[in-house]
Amino acid sequence: MAAESKSTDVSEVRMEDLVSLCARRGLIFQASEVYGGINGFWDYGPLGVELKNNLKSLWWQKVVRERDDVEGLDSTIICHPRTWEASGHVEHFSDPMVDCRACKKRFRADQLDDAGRCDSREGSSEHDFTEARSFNLMLRTSLGASEDAASEAYLRAETCQSIFTDFKRVREASRQKIPFGIAQVGKAFRNEINPRNFTFRSREFEQAELEFFVHPSERESWFEKWLELRMAFHAELGFDPARIRTRPHEADELAHYANAAADVEYHFPFGWQEIEGVHDRGDWDLSRHSEFAGKDLGITDEETKERYVPMVVETSMGVDRTVLALLCNAYRVESLEGGETRNVLRLHPALAPLKAAVLPLSKKLGEPARAIAARLRRDWNVFYDESGNIGRRYRRQDEVGTPLCITYDFDSETDAKVTVRERDSMAQDRVAIDALPAFLRERLEGAE
Amino acid sequence: MAAESKSTDVSEVRMEDLVSLCARRGLIFQASEVYGGINGFWDYGPLGVELKNNLKSLWWQKVVRERDDVEGLDSTIICHPRTWEASGHVEHFSDPMVDCRACKKRFRADQLDDAGRCDSREGSSEHDFTEARSFNLMLRTSLGASEDAASEAYLRAETCQSIFTDFKRVREASRQKIPFGIAQVGKAFRNEINPRNFTFRSREFEQAELEFFVHPSERESWFEKWLELRMAFHAELGFDPARIRTRPHEADELAHYANAAADVEYHFPFGWQEIEGVHDRGDWDLSRHSEFAGKDLGITDEETKERYVPMVVETSMGVDRTVLALLCNAYRVESLEGGETRNVLRLHPALAPLKAAVLPLSKKLGEPARAIAARLRRDWNVFYDESGNIGRRYRRQDEVGTPLCITYDFDSETDAKVTVRERDSMAQDRVAIDALPAFLRERLEGAE
User: Fold this and answer.
1) What are the tens digits of pLDDT across the range B368-414?
2) What is the sign of the dihedral through the CA atoms of A53, A55, A58 and A63?
3) What's the rounded Cα separation, in Å, for the pair B373 and B365?
4) Cβ burial, residue B374 (10 Å; 0-12/13-18/19+)
5) Global ipTM
6) Which residues from A are below 8 Å from B169, CB to CB?
7) Which of B45, B141, B297 sits opposite A169 (nearest CB)?
8) Cis peptide leading into B179, omega within 30 of 0?
9) How far away is chain B from the Cα of A250, in angstroms, using its nearest Cα?
10) Residue A442 phi, psi dihedral angles, 5° rounding
């Protein structure tokens, strides 16, 4: 193939461009779009679900499978309602709200500047507010045939609480000893008053959480260790070091249960924001569930016979937030020689939704090209595209982050080779068709 | 190692034994157990989550990744409420219920034989029932700051509806042409009045659904094709052919939207029950959402210019039900020579939660054995166990379905070999430590 001209310029990410790319290419778009959408809910399309699943798999691989001191869990979204009394959510997980007596709308008491005009008072912006009262952010539902208070339940506001309530069962079944952890990935729900910044603050979201149980004497060292491990994880994903940082919490911003905490923050186009939290939760959770369930969740050290409640170091990654940070980190609008531009997602190959695209130079070459795609599809997520000129097809792959484009041309018929073009450098290699699996393995997985 | 005596007898599965094994070994147990459980909700522990994830990955690999005519999706659990008006769930998805005026309890009108004694009438079993009225099975919640009717929403009762509402977006973004499908795996919720049979009928469950969109002239052939593909999938999982069957629906049991349907049924200890459904849904869903959204979801054939609403062939697998069927199918209590018995889960290696266990014959051999486990853990989910006699450690692995046990003994120190013992046959091979990755790859993945 004729080599492409090199990129010479890179622009800053504009959020609206990324949102539009995500919708157009089916990465992420508004849930129930056909009904006008639903505020704070986002669907992941064909490429988005692959990207998100790749991130979750990497997390599971590093945090659970490669460690002999972490066990996995998959608990239900609806838990026993006592869970949320013990956790403090029923009492504390709320925002102060005011109602307007005139227009009947409700607002956050600390955001009244955004309240706008009162709908019921033409020409006037004056609301008639009530006193502030607290509004719980958990989503409620009701179970069973009767609708009395006893059947009220909540959608979980965080995935970690069932790790605590399942702690004894998991510890006994897995025969783990302190220190060890329990991890899970799953959906959580918060009735955010003001969902915003694309998928950053939404009402239905996914968390990847680890609760690591340690002896009280080791809590500080494990907190430091896990903060370091989690930063190493993010570094491996390819985050620009200038746009990712840890920020220790000040004493006055610690949650009611936390003894120490640090946020992992990414510098989004809308500012520095948390994508993960690392928290020393102390013995708050196990002690509270022991008290509320009337069951001692403490443990006895087999050697010293010491009886104690383990301390918890938590790492809590927002899956959607991290996906969004990865997209912001990867997205470039590059100016090429000759005035052309290209959108590129410079995603790590392990995260890229598609690993390669097979592109016959002409539709006449479709049959052998399809055979290559089918062979590679056994091992990788591979796309096949035969429509449009080759430059346009490269651009379509660039903007969804496909690391390699494999072009089958008329020479391929005789030399049994194809051109493999790399996304970021746009450099081209001529590779024997038989050697493609090994070539892809090295380029895609050797890079991990 | 001394060879074990061969199994000579196999017993039928007893449900209570399987439930007890699942709890004891941390496969599946009651959600919020520490609070007395919550009816119809089950958590998957360390081994259960691996088994379930393995099934979901296999499904995704076969249905989505290996096909160029299927796209993946991951949509939200909470959709726009109009979705459920269009789907017919608001109107039709209900059971007839009666209330007892005396004890205030509610019962299914078609199950009054199970209603038991009236709590408020001592010594009597006479209830004072109201007329039957319909009780919707969707779980309800409410969104946003205000609690008026406009903010009411439902937890999805099935994952397929957002495939229909996202149909146009996904088709355009992926540039797919008819015939093609959209697939997703995710949670769904139904307020079952009477959850039962372990995880079989629960209130929170997972579905793996494919909606395949075809031209009206091809609906019957695609229905047959997908039924065949799905049965081939289940056959590959290792189901006993005598315990799995397809059962076409009679005309009078078809759902209101279905034109043809067949259940894939497994013969559980509690009878023949559906684990998957294959349905010809016709154009019901796309037509209804077109009508309710006021947007034409039909398509135009690029060649013939024909305008039509695609027909839908659906394959809907219950993930939890299939996991349960796999457990029932795999579970054996085997009598060994000498009067001993062993529990075995004869799971397909691709499904087994743990692929191998590394067992040093003595704790003194822990260091080199741990090194082997650490090396293998990069590629497989590998367990390490050094406590108890070797026979007992084999039994512990047998009952959670680990295909291979790798024993490091005192000879290993000099010959650099280990004994690999196979779960089902209990046959032993002596394998060079360096050759273990290749040996495992062949035994675990060659078998797929």
Assistant:
1) 999 999 999 999 999 999 999 999 999 999 999 999 999 999 999 99
2) negative
3) 13
4) middle
5) 0.93
6) 23, 26, 29, 33-34, 45
7) B45
8) yes
9) 30
10) -65, -45
